UniProtKB/TrEMBL annotation:
Transmembrane segments: 123-143, 155-174, 215-235, 247-269, 302-325, 337-354, 360-382, 403-423
Family from the record: Belongs to the glycosyltransferase 22 family. PIGB subfamily.
Biological processes, Gene Ontology terms: GPI anchor biosynthetic process
GO CC list: endoplasmic reticulum membrane
Function: Mannosyltransferase involved in glycosylphosphatidylinositol-anchor biosynthesis. Transfers the third mannose to Man2-GlcN-acyl-PI during GPI precursor assembly.
Keyword Transmembrane helix attributed: yes
Species classification: Eukaryota, Fungi, Fungi incertae sedis, Zoopagomycota, Kickxellomycotina
Enzyme class: transferase
Name the UniProt record assigns to this protein: Mannosyltransferase
Length: 587
């Protein structure tokens, strides 16, 4: 729970916009000797919380959290792992999965040296979780530092509190998504972004220029990991030049080499894995904007982000974010922060121009959103400094009368949702893959097999579900034949769209007919790195399809051998019910 320092009304919300003495600058490097250890202690506390948060994740929400990160890294290091159609068309950059690949390589090296102590499949599963917890902790800590610089320490504590209890942070940012890594880079860049006016200082040099390279380095890294981050930094750069026109030469001289280096690294990394020179951002633009094929994955109206996306990100914190936005827009003392409102509006407008929208695409704006939320919370719930007693200390958290109920409301509308989403909702698709991994370990170690495998060795697993419903090789790890139903968009398809056929769509139209045709030609499903003409030893389905598929399964000698609870509800009717495993009985 954040604390509000005793301070006068005039300083509680006044941001640092001009050069100040070290004693009054919120992020002064010449603060008290204990400030460094205090900052480290705060970060370690946040890190501990986020590591526990990350290890609590037992569910699977978005395909990209493994299929575009861990799965690719597993393929890069071990040679097993499915690369989706985006990689075949050069739409994805390797920089983000490359980070996880280095972790896998370190574990492999330690395995060679330690003789089986660290290189087990379990370590390969859980080691990336540490990185995810660290990423989320960096976002929390950097959001606090950014808010402290621009809006003061009292607001910063509330912004940190908002970040810590946020459903979005506790559920999405602790998963191996490129959006989380991008948001961490954005937050770190914001902590060093210049705030001083061009008139500050008398030496004739831009006072904050010493911090600009660090900010630009983090911004460039964010663009390297997720190129669409450039939209935010284009707006921030234009704002910086607008507010400091005298120093445009110095700004450009600092910006160009850093971003050129990031661009060069991106080209080198992608060349090393694609085997040719590829400019991924152009391919991504051509596919998503020029050809508008991203609409294949769903379309939303232009107003979706303000009407649905942002409320999903902030949930019950939204009213205070709006209140903070109102305060920044109307109070002269908060005017310097308005540049971030304009930058955020530009990012939202840019993403709104695309047909396909997801709330996580705006996660790069979370530090700004939490800063505004912290401002709204501090003004609404915190007791003004002039009304506190003399015994109130800087570390005391003082609430207005009646504010405690609302404070508790914010907690119970965020933390339980986070726990449910991480521990319960869609956990069966993870449990079934973990079970296969454990059984493969037993099978290849000569140990007694678990109940799910029955008397059927695991040789070929068919995930007869909508595409990307489960993690894949990154969670199974063993080199076994896997197949799933593909859902590739109609790239370079010149006939009417109604004629386009793909596995996942054909299965959804008539599951029983699809499975019957599959048994007639087992190699007909192309989404397998190890195609085989033999029928699968195990078939995984959602319970919603059991009644339709049961006659076909029984006719082909399959019987239910495992069932995993998955979710109490699902907006996608194709993914409802338990996850059910069928094993092929020996003939």
């Amino acid at each position: 729970m954040p604390a509000v320092k005793r301070q006068s009304k005039s300083t509680a919300a006044t941001p640092r916009v001009t050069a100040q003495s070290p004693s009054t600058t919120p992020n002064s490097k010449s603060a008290s000797p204990s400030s460094g250890s205090g900052s480290l202690g705060l970060f370690l506390a946040i890190l501990t919380f986020r590591l526990l948060n990350a290890f609590s994740v037992q569910t699977f929400l978005l395909p990209d959290e493994t299929w575009q990160s861990l799965e690719v890294a597993h393929h890069m290091v071990f040679g097993t792992g499915y690369l989706t159609w985006e990689w075949a068309h050069r739409l994805r950059g390797y920089a983000h999965p490359w980070l996880f690949a280095q972790l896998y390589r370190v574990l492999t090296y330690l395995e060679e040296r330690a003789g089986g102590l660290v290189g087990t499949s379990e370590v390969l599963i859980y080691a990336p979780v540490v990185g995810c917890g660290l990423t989320a902790a960096v976002i929390d800590w950097a959001t606090y530092r950014f808010t402290r610089t621009w809006l003061g320490p009292a607001v910063a504590r509330w912004a940190l509190w908002a970040s810590l209890v946020s459903w979005t942070m506790g559920t999405l940012m602790v998963r191996p998504l490129a959006n989380a890594a991008e948001t961490a880079c954005v937050a770190l860049a914001l902590t060093a972004w210049p705030t001083a006016s061009s008139s500050s200082g008398s030496s004739g040099a831009f006072p904050a220029l010493r911090d600009l390279p660090r900010a630009l380095a983090w911004a460039a890294l964010g663009c390297l990991l997720r190129p669409t981050s450039a939209l935010l930094w284009l707006g921030a750069g234009l704002q910086l030049i607008w507010h400091h026109p005298r120093w445009i030469g110095s700004i450009l001289a600092c910006t160009i080499p850093i971003f050129a280096t990031a661009l060069g690294l991106m080209l080198l990394i992608d060349h090393s894995f694609y085997g040719e020179w590829v400019f991924v951002p152009f391919n991504f633009y051509y596919f998503n904007v020029d050809q508008n094929l991203s609409a294949w994955f769903g379309t939303q109206p232009w107003y979706w982000y303000p009407a649905v996306g942002i409320p999903l990100l902030l949930t019950t914190l939204l009213p205070h974010a709006l209140y903070g936005t109102y305060l920044v827009s109307t109070q002269p003392a908060l005017a310097p922060f308005r540049r971030w409102l304009w930058i955020a509006a530009g990012v939202i407008a840019g993403y709104s121009a695309l047909s396909h929208k997801e709330a996580r695409f705006l996660s790069c704006l979370l530090p700004i959103m939490f800063a505004l939320t912290g401002l709204g919370l501090q003004r609404h719930l915190a007791l003004p400094a002039r009304k506190r007693g003399r015994t109130t200390t800087a570390s005391t958290f003082s609430l207005r009368p009646g504010a405690l109920k609302y404070f508790i409301f914010l907690l119970i509308t965020n933390l339980p949702v986070t726990l449910y989403t991480n521990l319960v909702h869609q956990r069966g698709v993870v449990d079934v893959v973990n079970s296969f991994r454990h059984q493969l370990h037993e099978q290849r170690s000569g140990l007694a097999q678990s109940d799910i495998a029955g008397s059927t060795p695991i040789e070929h697993i068919l995930f007869l579900m909508p595409c990307h419903s489960t993690p894949y090789y990154s969670h199974i790890h063993y080199n076994v034949s896997l197949s799933f139903l593909g859902c590739e968009p109609p790239v370079n398809f010149n006939r009417p769209l109604a004629e386009y056929q793909y596995d996942s769509g054909s299965y959804g139209e008539n599951p029983a007919l699809f499975l019957h045709n599959y048994f007639d030609s087992p190699g007909s499903i192309a989404s397998s790195p190890h195609p085989t003409s033999s029928p699968p030893s195990h078939i995984v389905i959602y319970d919603v399809d059991t009644s339709a598929l049961l006659p076909v399964l029984h006719a082909n000698n399959y019987t239910e051998c495992g069932r995993f609870f998955n979710t109490h509800w699902n907006g996608d009717s194709r993914r409802r019910g338990d996850v059910v495993v069928f094993c092929r009985k020996p003939v």
